[in-house]
From TrEMBL:
Molecular function GO labels: ATP binding; phosphorelay sensor kinase activity
Protein name stated in the entry: histidine kinase
Full protein segment contained here: 140 to 360 of 360
This enzyme's EC code(s): 2.7.13.3
Catalyzed reactions: ATP + protein L-histidine = ADP + protein N-phospho-L-histidine
Superkingdom of origin: Bacteria
Organism: Halalkalibacillus sediminis
Lineage: Bacteria, Bacillati, Bacillota, Bacilli, Bacillales
Length: 221
């Protein structure tokens, strides 16, 4: 089991992140500017350029919306919440996306009520990010399981049947902009770790015996 430690100095020092964001946003902006200049001169085949421009704008949109979730701890709203209700909501939400890819999301809690303190919208974002990654990792059809392993301290696993995470890649996960996906932002796990850190919770990756990986979130007792 490998800890995805929250090495905040290394990963998310504000300056380093800002430099990364600037870099990631500058590339699509440069290409947008170039295509606009081309369009001004009235070239042929406008549709292809417009399509690329739309993709570039979407890239910028993704980056900025993911970064919105890096809230300052002082802006968080901690309240008594029910983990079962939160996970029910999220599974319902993600099932519509999963169904299109022939993926089942299983969540069978043993209790109706597991209380814990958290910022609800932030914790929702954590499980949206993890389940989204699990869906994207599932190659064809498959099952994703969301399991409440125990209630005190509260542990939740998100288990997929994808290819798993190679050992040498594990420590890169959660670094800003680290992605192996064509249209990935590489911000999901960084934001996830940041939110969990604000909750004194941790995340680690377990290797599944058969195939796939398990992302395990442990809350403080
Ligand atoms: P993104 O999803 O935009 O690539 P993330 O920070 O969410 O960014 O994930 C970073 C990388 O971690 C992914 O590109 C992928 O290589 C790896 N990863 C995350 N979740 C899984 C998973 N469930 N199975 C395999 N690899 C994963
Ligand atoms: Mg992701």
């Amino acid at each position: 089991a490998q800890e995805l430690l929250i090495s905040s100095e290394k990963l998310t020092s504000a300056g380093q992140l800002a430099a990364g964001v600037a870099h990631e946003i500058r590339n699509p902006l440069t290409s947008l500017k170039g295509f606009l200049q081309l369009l001004e001169t009235g070239i042929e085949g406008k549709e292809a350029y417009l399509k690329i421009m739309k993709d570039e704008i979407e890239k910028i949109e993704t980056i900025s919306s993911e970064l919105l979730y890096i809230a300052r701890p002082s802006h968080l709203k901690f309240e008594d919440e029910n983990m079962v209700a939160i996970l029910n909501d999220i599974c319902l939400l993600m099932r519509s996306q999963a169904r299109m890819n022939d993926i089942q999301i299983e969540f069978e809690p043993l209790d109706d009520q597991i209380k814990f303190r958290c910022d609800r919208s932030q914790i929702k974002q954590v499980f949206i990010n993890l389940i989204k990654n699990a869906i994207e990792a599932t190659e064809e059809s498959g099952t994703i399981a969301v399991n409440i392993v125990q209630s005190n301290p509260l542990i939740v696993d998100v288990v997929d049947e994808g290819p798993g995470v190679p050992n040498e890649m594990k420590e890169k996960l959660g670094e800003p902009f680290f992605t192996t996906k064509k249209n990935g932002s590489g911000l999901g796990l960084m934001v996830t770790k940041q939110i969990l850190s604000n909750h004194d919770a941790t995340i680690k990756i377990l290797d599944n015996e058969d195939k796939g990986s398990t992302f395990r979130v442990t809350f403080p007792s």
